[in-house]
Design a protein that fits this description.
The complex is a heterodimer of chains A (336) and B (268). With 336 residues, chain A is an all-alpha fold. Chain A has one domain. In chain A, 71% of the residues lie in helices and 0% in strands. Chain A has 15 helices and no strands. Chain B has 268 residues and is of the alpha/beta class. Helix content of chain B is 43%, strand content 23%. Chain B contains 11 helices and 10 strands. In chain B, the strands form 2 sheets. In chain B, strands 6-7-8-3-9-10 form a 6-stranded mixed β-sheet, with helices on both faces. In chain B, strands 2-1-4-5 form a 4-stranded antiparallel β-sheet, with helices on one face. The chains are: A mainly alpha (336), B alpha/beta (268). The interface between A and B is large, with 35 and 55 residues.
């Protein structure tokens, strides 16, 4: 235990090296399709883990990730779009935006920040209320974001979507983002902040009576989740090079919630594994869907899988826990 | 207790709470001095838990004022009242069931010792120090109530009486000035109740916490409390030392009267 604490522990470092080896192998030997697929799977991992923070640890029920991805994606795409094509694609842009062509990193950060800002406004409005207002509000947000982007066609090309977004995202950028996201949520879960979030999930009244500011903590979990979703949206757009208003909608919100529930509410390992499994399942069901002309088969399979897990193992694969032996040893207490 | 008069720490005047048309508590008054051990008794539905909910900021009072260390805290949000140093337990145990016993107590220490988001993300030396402090204090609180060996167990797997002790450990870990215990002996067997009485004396004697105890076990209340308040029908019926309360005709009538009333109802 001589490594400085801000660096990951030996087991986490090993997991990171393993992921990096997979990416390196894919990058060197596999097709562009496989590399893109790997990147999309990693993005789904990051999305599921960030939703785990909001829904799993804190016990909120947010469906808003697709809305935050859309906002982050559009904002970042407008910032990185080639200046010479902005004139006819986005005629209403103010001069300072029309002449700007940013790099991926600042564009992603700004896209994520705008998504977080949107979450802040929604959160302040509904997080003081008890019950499932957040689920309804975030469901509504998906629709509102789509409608607004459809109608801001001078900035977004409306329903046509933005194509020709520069392909600035590669598997390595996605890997770094995913590792940072998983590491951040892991550290929160295994620190006082995460314990306070889980305490609130388990019994909010008792948590408030212990001095925990429930509203502030919920707002933090919701806004941070939205920030990460916004960044994921920005990276996705620069990976696949297009974005349309309906690209990230209610089916994705459902899939992400399924990943959290199947993995186990609060379990980061569970969310990672469920995200990988469900993403690959959806991808490999696609040729089957086309061959058998059974479109939507993957959605049906995911829904069936959810029902099966809830029936056989209602707490998900891992409950709220991580498999033993991962991460740093916990404090054993000072008095023993 | 010292010869000098201890100062008043928690004070309530004219405290009342209505739920729709039902008066749960009316004109309740409390003067709690530092380090005092006060019993709050009365039949079911007398307003004892309502009094606790008002004093701990869980409910806003309909009437009256609450002062803590001379400061008016009426209507403050629950978490701010808690941070002043008012901790409590619950009549129906409210643990963080899926967390370990140690994590339950550690979660109670977040408000004072928990690091912020940036320090947590970077695992700064200060954050590590705080985590160590939280773990040490939580373990010490568990040792104090005699549950040190159960720290790693899942809280909801414990026996009911032990769960009550975890709640007490969670509350005292925050180093409260005032501790409100809502029926701590409910669900405990006689030997556990004896251990609880001992624990209350140590809390009061060793840690100097001011305690208010709602309890139905009269032997416990009369044995440990220096002063007792009796509530009936949402009103303060009597207040005094245990032996005064036991002789108080109004209290005797209230406790026996309800039984006599029931007999009358039977006869009629």
């Amino acid at each position: 235990m001589t490594a400085p604490p801000f660096l990951p522990g030996p087991k986490a470092a090993l997991a990171m090296l393993g992921a990096a080896a997979v990416v390196a192998f894919a990058d060197l030997y596999l097709s562009t399709y496989a590399v893109t697929l790997l990147s999309l799977v990693m993005l789904n991992v990051a999305l599921a883990v960030s939703l785990q923070l909001t829904n799993g640890l804190t016990g909120l029920f947010s469906l808003g990730h697709p809305a935050f991805m859309t906002v982050g994606g559009y904002v970042a795409a407008i910032l990185t779009y080639p200046v010479r094509r902005k004139g006819f694609m986005m005629p209403d842009l103010p001069d300072w935006l029309a002449t700007a062509q940013w790099d991926l990193l600042p564009a992603t950060l700004v896209g994520a920040a705008v998504a977080a800002l949107l979450a802040l406004v929604v959160g302040i409005a509904v997080l003081r209320l008890k019950g499932h207002y957040l689920a309804v509000a975030t469901l509504g947000l998906i629709v509102i974001v789509r409608v607004v982007i459809n109608n801001l066609d001078g900035y977004t090309r409306g329903g046509l979507g933005l194509s020709g977004v520069p392909r600035l995202t590669g598997p390595w950028e996605v890997l770094v983002f995913t590792l940072l996201t998983v590491g951040l949520v892991w550290r929160i879960k295994h620190a006082s902040l995460g314990r306070a979030m889980m305490a609130m999930r388990e019994n909010e009244l008792a948590a408030r009576c212990m001095g925990i500011d429930a509203f502030a903590l919920k707002l933090l979990a919701f806004v941070l989740g939205a920030f990460l979703a916004g960044a994921a949206g920005a990276l996705t757009v620069h990976l696949v090079s297009v974005i349309t208003p309906g690209a990230y909608g209610i089916p994705l919100a459902f899939s992400l919630v399924v990943m959290v529930v199947v993995g186990g509410s609060g379990s980061i390992t569970g969310a990672v594994l469920a995200a990988i499994a469900i993403s690959l399942l959806s991808e490999f069901a696609r040729p089957l869907e086309e061959g058998l002309e059974l479109y939507g088969l993957s959605q049906v399979l995911v829904a069936l899988g959810l029902i099966l897990v809830l029936r056989l193992r209602p707490t998900g694969l891992f409950g709220s826990r991580e498999p033993a032996g991962l991460g740093r040893p916990r404090f054993s207490g000072g008095t023993s | 207790m010292n010869a000098s008069e201890p100062r008043t720490i928690l004070e309530a005047r004219g405290l009342g709470r209505r739920f729709g048309g039902v008066v749960a508590l009316e004109d309740y008054a409390l003067t709690l001095r530092e380090g005092e051990l006060l019993g709050l008794i009365g039949p079911n539905g007398a307003g004892k838990t309502t009094a606790f909910n008002l004093l701990s900021g869980v409910l806003r009072p309909s009437t009256g004022r609450i002062r803590f260390a001379g400061r008016d805290v009426t209507g403050w949000p629950t978490h701010r009242i808690a941070r002043l140093g008012i901790a409590r337990t619950f009549q129906n145990v409210r643990l963080f069931g899926d967390l370990s016993v140690l994590d339950n107590v550690m979660a109670g220490l977040h408000a004072r010792w928990g690091a912020g988001l940036v320090a947590t993300a970077l695992a700064t030396p200060g954050q590590r120090r705080r985590e160590g402090e939280i773990a040490r204090r939580a373990q010490a609180a568990l040792d104090f109530v005699g549950l040190g060996a159960l720290a790693g167990r899942r809280a909801s797997d414990l026996a009911y009486g032990q769960q009550r002790l975890v709640e007490i450990a969670r509350a005292i870990a925050t180093e409260p000035v005032v501790l409100l215990l809502d029926e701590p002996a409910a669900g405990m067997n006689p030997s556990e109740t004896d251990a609880l009485a001992d624990l209350l004396r140590r809390l009061h004697g060793d840690l100097g916490v001011a305690l208010v105890v709602v309890e139905h076990d009269m032997r416990l209340v009369m044995g440990v409390c220096g002063r007792i308040q009796v509530l009936e029908g949402g009103r303060l019926l009597a207040e005094g030392r245990p032996e005064e309360i036991q002789r108080n005709p109004a209290v005797i009538a209230a406790y026996l009267g309800s039984r006599r009333g029931a007999e009358h109802a039977h006869a009629g």
